Amino acid sequence: MKAVLPAIARPLVEPHLPAGVTVAWWKSVEEAKAMIADADIAWVDMEKPASVAATMRASGPNLKWVSTIYAGLDAFPLDVLRARRAIVTNGVGINALAVAEYAVMGVLVAAKRFDRIVRAADAHEWLLDAPGMTELHGTRALIVGLGAIGRLVGDRLEAFGVEVTGVTRSGRDGTLTPDRWRARLGQFDWVILAAPSTPDTRAMIGAAELAAMKDSAWLINIARGDMIDDDALLAALRGGTIGGAFLDPTNPEPLPPDHPLWSAPNCMITMHLSGRSGRAKMFQRAAALFLRNLSAFVEGKPMENVADLDAGY
User: Fold this and answer.
1) DSSP collapsed to 3 states, the chain
2) How would you label 129-164 residue by residue, b for 16+ Cβ within 10 Å and e otherwise?
3) What pLDDT does residue 4 have?
4) What is the pTM assigned to this prediction?
5) In this structure, are 10 and 131 located in the same domain?
6) Are residues 230 and 108 in the same domain?
7) What residues act catalytically?
8) What are residue 26's phi and psi, to 5 degrees?
9) Which of 1, 47, 38, 46 has its CA nearest to residue 22?
10) 130 and 230 inside one domain
11) What CATH number did the domain enclosing 188 receive?
12) Are residues 112 and 209 in the same domain?
């Protein structure tokens, strides 16, 4: 049984490989594309989504299992995976703590307008008053996507006294279903995007949704940049019809230096660093998850984090 795995994971994975598994360790896109042609197992996460897709399309009929550290599968050619009838296990939970902390940081930075404080400090300007005076206690947050990350965000915000409402596909545990949250947007001070990227979530925040928000409400995105209509967001920021936006991901990435979001009023961009803010532990968790799933795969037992290729996560 042949596995194609990232060389960076070798020190964490190789000592624990079960018998009967041979590994080709890739260091470049070109190596991964060559190695995957006859592979049974592939872990080919890369920086650029296009590289992941190109590598997966170079796979052959032997491919049975694809492992990824990502929660969403937007970088993967789902048509190829379906044709191969491959199992796909995702990385739900691997970086959940780091991303959840980042989301809470976004809310706190927006509430206290810490961005303005940093700029004043850079200019050696002594502020006579706090630029942000919002207390989290008593505010309300809507978390669109109450999965592994969303639940952690909610728990942490509730500790600050924030009333949290979640959105899930099923409406479980009193959450709102996808057809109900838009009608209630005007009730929230924080609208937090934590859902996986799928065709259903693309441009889910557009002109109508932004117009329905409070004029003091902040949009916090820790999911994917394509969930927001940038033109509509720019209009809302420039018109002051929402409080502001804290954007970890953007669309595209990297965001071009001349993109208007960089200079939009009340907009903070953090270069999709939320997951990387816990990178060392994230990779340790990823390797441990891969090894648990590898043992299960070899033994024919149930695997963790099996993705739904139709849902896209």
Assistant:
1) CEEEEEHHHHHHHHHHCCCCCEEEEECCHHHHHHHHHHCCEECCCCCCHHHHHHHHHCCCCCCCEEECCCCCCCCCCHHHHHHHCCEEECCCCCCHHHHHHHHHHHHHHHHHCHHHHHHHHHCCCCCCCCCCCCCCCCCEEEEECCCHHHHHHHHHHHHCCCEEEEECCCCHHHCECCCCCHHHHHHCCEEEECCCCCCCCCCCECHHHHHHCCCCCEEEECCCHHHECHHHHHHHHHHCCCCEEEECCCCCCCCCCCCHHHHCCCEEECCCCCHHHHHHHHHHHHHHHHHHHHHHHHHCCCCCCECCCCCCC
2) eeeeebebeebbbbbbbbbbbbbbbbebbeebebeb
3) 98
4) 0.90
5) no
6) yes
7) 224, 253, 272
8) -100, 145
9) 1
10) yes
11) 3.40.50.720
12) yes
Is 313 inside a domain boundary?
no
Return the ∠ at Cα 60 (arms to 57 and 64), rounded to 5°.
Answer: 100
Q: Are residues 123 and 134 in the same domain?
A: yes
46 and 143 housed in the same domain: no
Phi, psi for 286 (deg, rounded to 5): -65, -45
Give yes or no: residues 182 and 267 share one domain. Answer: yes
Q: Give residue 313's pLDDT.
A: 84
pLDDT recorded at residue 27: 97
The CA distance from 99 to 150, in Å, is: 9
End-to-end CA, the chain: 26
Structure tokens at 311: 């849902």
- What integer pLDDT is reported at residue 237 of this predicted model? 98
Domain extent at residue 70 = 2-94+278-299
- Note whether 127 and 269 are same-domain residues: yes
Q: Is residue 84 in a domain?
A: yes
Q: How far is CA 87 from the centre of its chain?
A: 21
Strand order in the sheet with 87-89: 22-26, 2-6, 41-42, 65-67, 87-89
- As averages over each run of 10 residues, the pLDDT of the chain (313 residues) reads 97 96 97 97 92 96 96 91 96 94 98 98 98 98 96 98 97 95 98 92 97 98 97 98 98 96 98 88 92 97 95 83
